[in-house]
């Protein structure tokens, strides 16, 4: 029986090692993919903002080829510059929040792990070392020599254990400080959410202005003076919108989070008025109108569907794709729980087979440390909230697909505008849901 148990012990140890290797590999994948936490961009090769048609992009070249007469209305350097300025602020603030948030969890995990090792494994050896020091004698040959005393003197062992205890306490304090820093000190999260809200409202305002002034777009196309006048009027309207929006941005953000709307008055999304009731649908103007509506479908609706589809893929980076975050965090957490189970099985086998190494304090310490690591992964999950974000994107994509079908099936400009209103309302609601979910997220262990 003992022989059988020994064989089972060897097999269990092999499985334990395999599980540990798998877990470490998964953790390595997560931290390699999470480069955004240490200063890289928040996106990978894809560009979330191609619907602005910035110069030098493939979408700009394609739009110029297909919708050339309307490019004066489809691309605005001022809108792009205003968006990009705030987008840079939002990205930097988010990067800092994630860096400090996950850093606080890692520091907290190290603090708890060191404290566990100190209490369960090192402290008993310290007591033995102090006893040896008081008796001015080392352990007798018939005694089991503690690990510390096998590699250092009693004085050195005492100092080492105190250093470990102090390091655990220091890491705990640093964990609290970094967590507090990312969570509230300096209003970092509010800065991120305010800048992101501004960016998305600029995006929505751009398309709302386009739809509300389709008659002007159709009339100006091909006339350089009228095109310039259109752009100047759009720039002036954007300045007025931003002045009003940013006059009391913190209060608007708070209102959005608390009440589910931003309270922009007449500038509230979606489109304020149903235009085009009297616009002719035949002749050159009718053709330009059809082209303008097709541009909205191709650039705005297609871009948003692509965006929602892209972020629900599992193949993207850990830092930007909630589907990948959810999958990898679940796998790492499962692997760590399996490691805890293997550690407990080792103890059981150690008791049954009377194998001292299997039932040692060291194995218990490993089990507790792995359990703490699983808790840290859960804390990262609560901070990133991948499941909530993934559900939001899937719902948003579903709304967009249904609305696009209605847009394409509509046979009159007013009917298409009605579908466009649904698109803008869906985009607005998705932004509000994001703000509320991001505000609720916390990196706490």
Summary tags:
mainly alpha; 0% strand
Q: What spatial form do the alpha-carbon principal axes imply? A: elongated
Number of strands: 0
Helix content: over 70%
From the N-terminal CA to the C-terminal CA, the straight-line distance is: 44 Å
N to C succession of SSEs: HHHHHHHHHHHHHHH
Describe this structure in words.
There is one protein chain. This protein has 445 residues and is an all-alpha fold. It is built from 15 helices and no strands. α4 packs antiparallel against α13, α11 runs parallel beside α15 and α12 packs antiparallel against α13. The two termini are 44 Å apart. About 5% of the residues have low confidence.
List the helices and strands and how they pair.
Elements: H1 2-33, H2 58-66, H3 71-74, H4 77-135, H5 147-151, H6 154-183, H7 188-212, H8 214-220, H9 224-246, H10 249-259, H11 283-311, H12 322-353, H13 361-384, H14 386-409, H15 413-440
Quick synopsis:
The protein is mostly helical. It has helices at 2-33, 58-66, 71-74, 77-135, 147-151, 154-183, 188-212, 214-220, 224-246, 249-259, 283-311, 322-353, 361-384, 386-409, 413-440.
